[in-house]
């Protein structure tokens, strides 16, 4: 065929138009909207969760939780509540936002959750917070003897050993940490230990230094059941600084996320007992486009309204997977048309590859082989019963599900959690694959069966690598118009009339014989 | 690899992609497929066109039909039961003769009427049909192997595959049953494929499981030089199937009967490529030559003559 005829065939024109449209849209998106072609560095997002456990007293119950304040360093992306039968209202209490769960009658163990997604802005530092606000000097509290003179003694010592407000505060807290000191003993006995940070702020007020208690948590990955940390912030007239109330060190805890500032307690309840609050944190990464989308709401451009980022997050996740399926289909077409790999069924390798995405590759292959082998044995046994087709397939489906349940139970028993993911395998596909496998076994023999099983696995693994490729996933999701290019590739492949690699092997003896 | 690729291309070896795209899709229209997929339909058509086929004794569609099995089979000493939608010789039961109430198979084993009926009901339920759809059972004339081919057939009946393109016979091979193919003329199951010179009807070399063989694996007799009797009648028979089905690219399977001569067994709309291995030669050049002729004769006899001149004396161009 001449070059001209190939170039001007209707198929070629269609292929060129499709590719041109796709590349055009892509070019627009990259140049005008600056959408990144490659997945860029990922933003760090933390999920913090407060869990409140308590028991009802068989009467009306109310739980108030102070919610994290808006913060210069930490942006809150999203928050949600798990209320389980409690009515929820979000109100305010003084300067704070407050969630209030109420119920007319509550009994037995209850648990409530508050969860927030927060995003630390990396370039801001902790110390610059609230710099603009005028802070009033606190009044000097009235103490009784001997507490009053003990406090005055301590304040005098600290004053003599320090130069400015911050060094004074630090020195004071260091002195208060020395439990052998007679004055400190008196001071410490006046309040329970849990009230210590509040007492420290009162002592600082004795020197007319503004300070407050800050409650927060430490952001650490997969850190569960962590307690609330209470810290002290001192103001020198210009800015706030964090101090460890136990030692006087002038610093914040590592990766400190302040929940509320200046309040006595973040939790306030009525009609409950056995109250316990704990926090957990975990780190997630999301790519920059998603992040900016969530931070700023919608991107302004009208063109951007057609990106998949306008869909709800759950739907986005579905499309992240769905958009990779055409690439899997492309892999299958290449394997079949160019290489000639024999497989059971046309698209079953793609669906098996999708299951591998969830189970991880090694486990996926192992579980797949186990299920296939066991199902195959059962199918061979069923063949002797001469059942009609549809009831036989239904029977196989039931048996496959049974095998999956069995394997899950077995692996749970052995403590192999990966074995549980077998439930993600598409059972109908498994059933049909077993069916085809046994037909090939009966009609073509064991060699062919092994060949096709391996072929199916090879194509599934290739599909898995393509469909889980990070850069490809990014491209397909950000530039769904690439579907047109995949389509064009499939159209082109549909008119390929050259040999398959397998055929070159099959017919290779013909070459030798002619040459004689 | 690339070297082999180019060599194959030069020799005109046809690949599956090219077969599907250039021939099956261009020359076989979809609506003709049911005519050849259902052997009962093919047979009816063939009889109407005066083409020789094994005589149909009875066809049964419903389990109820099977109740009159005994009566229907009463006149026949020997017969073959096969599924109308079967493929590759699956589900074929051959009855060689009768002994009192029993039906005797070629290997000497005897079946009761009930066992024959069970086999037929299995066929009806679709066990042997593609995709498992409900099927019909055909009871037909039992072909007797022609004496010429008796020495090279293990138990079953060999069949001759003629590839017909636009009504012109292009290439042929004969498939001989062996012990390992269990008397079936199916290359996948270990039957021997032997190439036939299309102009003379003389066998050339054999291929078994993709390996070249010169002797029958069971009998040790040479495979080449075998003269197929009635060769021109056979080619004409194959050629006439073009008018019958309208399929431009098809494989016609023909059996040679001791008494009745060549008869059409079945027609395949997607014939395989193994015929090239059996003939040690590619299809592409032959197909190109037929394709280059614009107006082909309407008369099947003339088309056979055309094939003889096209693929005669001169060797296949390299």
Key structural traits:
heterodimer, A: 516 residues, alpha+beta, seven-stranded antiparallel β-sheet, four-stranded antiparallel β-sheet, 18 helices, elongated, B: 318 residues, 11 helices, 14 strands
Percent range for β-strand residues of chain B: 15-25%
Per DSSP E runs of 2 or more residues, the count of β-strands of chain A stands at 11
Write down the overall mean pLDDT of chain B: 88
Strand order of the largest sheet of chain B: 12-11-10-9-8-13-14
Question: What this model shows, in words?
Answer:
The complex is a heterodimer of chains A (516) and B (318). Chain A is an alpha+beta fold and 516 residues long. Helices cover 47% and strands 22% of the residues of chain A. In chain A, the strands form two sheets. In chain A, strands 1, 2, 3, 4, 6, 10 and 11 form a seven-stranded antiparallel beta sheet that branches. A four-stranded antiparallel beta sheet of chain A has the order 8-7-5-9. The radius of gyration of chain A is 34 Å and the shape is elongated. The relative contact order of chain A is 0.12. In chain B, α8 crosses α11. Chain B has helices at residues 2-11, 16-27, 33-37, 39-48, 69-73, 113-125, 147-150, 231-245, 274-279, 284-292, 300-311, and strands at residues 56-60, 79-83, 93-95, 97-99, 102-104, 110-111, 137-140, 159-165, 168-176, 192-196, 203-208, 211-213, 249-257, 261-268. The longest helix of chain B has 15 residues, at 231-245. With 318 residues, chain B is of the alpha+beta class. In chain B, β4 and β5 form a beta hairpin. The A-B interface holds A 337, 340, 386, 388-389, 443-445, 448, 494-501, 503-504, 506-511, 513-514 and B 1, 4-5, 7-9, 11, 13, 15-18, 21-22, 88, 90, 122, 125-127, 132, 188-189, 210-212, 273, 276-277, 280-282.
